[in-house]
Amino acid sequence: MRRRTKFNINPKHLFISGALLCFVLIFVSFQYKEQLSPVKTAAGNVISPMQDGINSIGHAISSQVEKLSSLSKLLKENATLKDQVSTLSYENKILLQDKYELDRFRDLYKLDKKYADYPKVGARVIDADPNSWYNSFRIDKGTDDGIAVNMNVIAGNGLVGIIEEVGKNWARVKSIIDDSSNVSGMFLKTSDRCIVNGDLELYNSGVIGVELIGKDTKVSDGYEVVTSPISDKYLQGILIGYISDLTVDPNNLTKTAHLTPAVDFDRLEEVLIITELKEPLVDIDDTKKK
């Protein structure tokens, strides 16, 4: 077999040859300018469209690069704006929470002024029975704060309920809507008495029951019912709610009605505890015996 002969070209020689060729072409082009004019024209006619095409492709590529650069910039700006919107939304929620809390504190302040004669302690609701309403719930104040059983609890526009159990740093409240609750009430306008009974089933309609209203009692829908002086646990004059739907009982001696509580038992977050207990009623006969 014959071995193929390898030709090794020195790069230096190749460079010199290329330079000489360029020099010769430049010399010919200047020396024979008129004779080569048709060749230049023909070459221009061939190269010009190619150059236009290359320029168009270059412009298209440049345009796409600019678009990609703009898109990348827009994506970064969009991500920044999303972060800012998220931060602003969070801050807005915090501000709304602060506003609602401030509104609640204002309501408690008004309530405190309304019953200014009674000493009070503020408390937060920390636990409630697993149903839709606050018929029984715990607060974050206890014996360490001077809280005792049978102290009255208020919120919103009036009576919430009463302390039924107390620990060192907590207490449980039974509200007036609880099935086991009954409060001796009185119509503020006429001083006629009645009994307000808790009723969770009835509270589905936003009301509880009122009974033992005298047949001849001159009251009508919207009249205010407050705690009466003969109650053994509730202090006198605390607003319970507003009367409605008066009906005469079958015995034709009394009336029953519904009462819309002055407190919204769908949501309770803060309450006031009146730290003054109702003084026990003194039996007149017992006083005479003494």
UniProtKB/TrEMBL annotation:
Annotated GO CC locations: plasma membrane
Rod shape-determining protein MreC beta-barrel core domain location: 125-274
GO biological process, one term: regulation of cell shape
InterPro entries xrefs: Cell/Rod_1, Cell/Rod_MreC_2, MreC, MreC_beta-barrel_core
Keywords in alphabetical order: Cell shape, Membrane, Transmembrane, Transmembrane helix
Signal peptide positions on this chain: none
Residue ranges of the TM segments: 12-32
Keyword check for Membrane: yes
Family per similarity comment: Belongs to the MreC family.
PANTHER family with a match to the protein in the record: CELL SHAPE-DETERMINING PROTEIN MREC
Function comment: Involved in formation and maintenance of cell shape.
Designated name of the protein: Cell shape-determining protein MreC
Species: Anaerocolumna sedimenticola
Lineage: Bacteria, Bacillati, Bacillota, Clostridia, Lachnospirales
